[in-house]
Design a protein that fits this description.
This protein has about 400 residues and is of the alpha/beta class. Helices cover about 30% and strands about 30% of the residues. Bound molecules: flavin-adenine dinucleotide (FAD) and nicotinamide-adenine-dinucleotide (NAD).
């Protein structure tokens, strides 16, 4: 009898979790499992603010996919997904195509630029290993160039961060640690460096605990960050940005580096493939399948799950993507065994910890507020836990964060 073919697109948190769980649940004779990913490595998206600032080398945030998959059960294809032909049950890849009986789409998200002029061209993103490496090297280039100039342009040393959501704040935490190192390395007076964070909402980290937000702002301000709150980026140019408060006339801030950390949308493959989506995210059924397509599951940043308590979507996080991966694997194993009664996904929120640099953080864990060294310790525990969930103790030993005391 022909074995069903399960194809998983994307080896991020959702896709890799589905893969490693499926390889446990299913025997070699029960199904063919194929994993497709653009790179031959997985990267910890949740550590990219460190690679981007240059406080952690990008090789530390990634590992070889083949190290965590069981190659006797999973076929790995390194290729880029171009389009999903859902009515024909096949996926078009840059290097060919692959057919499926069950499909898992876990291609993650992309930066949301809301059509703001110049952002795609001139701003840097914290999206993947390539974008992080580029941002780190660009900042180093700006520092290195500064001292070569006869007429010094101090705005070369201004770094603007757009968005004070978790990504923007975590990046600022790393940046404030990295800037003194850069100044030392490139013989630059630290007083010449400006770090400006522009946030459109009336507060930093909108929706998060106000007491913890106050702590984060005062810690980052103490380390030199200037916050422009209730101020939106309106345009990005090669020289910097234009910002405006409410209906005010936009004003220019000249900057050598602009980082856009102001939101994510689903992967563009989703819309290109004709799925009904909101900002590239598909509202999935409780069993994580796409309405009308019983053979297609969508997880992670490209999926949309409603928090029934407040009737609003859950923010896209690695925590959700991994939990979805576990449920998705159990549901596909059930379908392979001809069971039609599938499990419903229920998000088990274990809390949120936001790093403020090497040894500081804020968080709410199991309902308890934490700050400082204990929160920073917890953040590293969370980081190590995600390695453990996918690759076990071996991966934690190889890639884990142990500078926790
Ligand atoms: P990803 O983990 O992003 O994986 C997507 C995969 O698909 C990647 O391997 C990518 O290379 C691959 N891919 C993409 N397009 C294609 C294509 N066309 N063809 C083939 N392969 C493709 N969440 C938390 O819960 N806790 C945190 O502390 C946290 N910190 C964060 C810090 C930063 C700096 C950022 C940017 C995000 C953070 N998040 C955090 C959010 C979290 O990282 C995402 O929600 C999570 O990565 C989503 O998982 P995913 O599986 O959907 O996608
Ligand atoms: P976000 O959408 O959470 O925050 C983006 C911020 O940018 C918002 O505060 C928004 O008001 C602001 N913004 C939007 N347009 C703007 C403009 N024109 N000018 C200035 N500011 C503007 O995005 P994010 O921070 O990238 O987070 C993405 C997801 O990843 C979220 O779900 C988040 O929870 C998750 N994440 C979690 C952690 C963590 O748990 N430690 C860390 C990073 C990201």
């Amino acid at each position: 009898m022909r074995k069903p073919k399960i194809v998983i697109l994307g080896a991020g948190y959702g896709g890799l979790m589905t893969t490693v769980r499926l390889q446990k649940h299913l025997g070699v004779n029960e199904a063919d499992i194929v994993l497709v990913n653009k790179n031959d490595y997985h990267y910890e998206t949740t550590w990219l603010h460190e690679a981007s600032a240059g406080t952690l080398h990008h090789d530390k945030v990634r590992y070889d996919i083949r190290d965590v998959i069981d190659r006797s059960k999973v076929d790995f294809i390194q290729s880029t997904v171009v389009e999903i032909k859902k009515d024909e049950k096949r996926v078009i890849l840059e290097s060919g195509e692959v057919e499926y009986d069950y499909l898992v789409i876990a291609l993650g998200g992309e930066p949301e630029t809301f059509g703001i002029k110049g952002l795609k061209e001139y701003a840097f993103g914290i999206t993947n290993v390539n974008s992080s490496r580029l941002l780190r090297e660009h900042m180093e280039y700006q520092f290195a160039t500064y001292n070569m100039e006869e007429e010094k342009d101090d705005t070369r040393l201004t770094i603007v961060v757009g968005g004070a959501g978790f990504t923007g704040i975590e990046f600022l935490g790393e940046l404030t640690n990295r800037v003194p190192e850069l100044c030392h390395e490139y013989d630059v007076d630290q007083h010449k460096v400006k770090i400006i964070c522009v946030e459109a909402a009336p507060t930093v980290l909108p929706g998060f605990d106000p007491e913890l937000v106050k702590y984060a702002v005062s810690q980052l301000e103490r380390k030199g960050v200037e916050f422009l709150i209730g101020t939106a980026i309106k345009e990005c140019t090669p020289e910097g940005i234009f910002v405006a408060k409410g209906e005010d006339e936009p004003r220019e801030i000249k900057a050598g580096t602009v980082v856009w950390a102001a939101g994510v949308r689903g992967n563009s493959v989703i819309e290109k493939s004709g799925f009904e989506a909101m900002r590239g995210r598909v509202k999935v059924q409780p069993d994580l399948r796409v309405p009308g397509f019983n053979d297609v599951f969508i997880l992670g940043d490209s999926s949309l799950v409603i928090n029934e308590e407040i009737n609003r979507p859950y923010p896209p996080t690695a925590q959700i993507a991994m939990q979805q991966g576990e449920v998705c694997a159990r549901n596909i194993a059930a379908l392979v065994r001809n069971k039609q009664d599938l499990e419903e996904f229920k998000f088990d929120n274990k809390g949120t910890v936001c790093s403020l640099g090497e040894d500081d953080a804020i968080g709410v864990v199991f309902g308890k507020k934490i700050t400082g060294a204990s929160a920073s310790f917890m953040k590293k525990v969370v980081d190590n836990r995600s390695l453990y969930m996918i690759g076990g103790a071996g991966l934690v030993l190889k890639k884990g964060k142990f500078n926790i005391f």
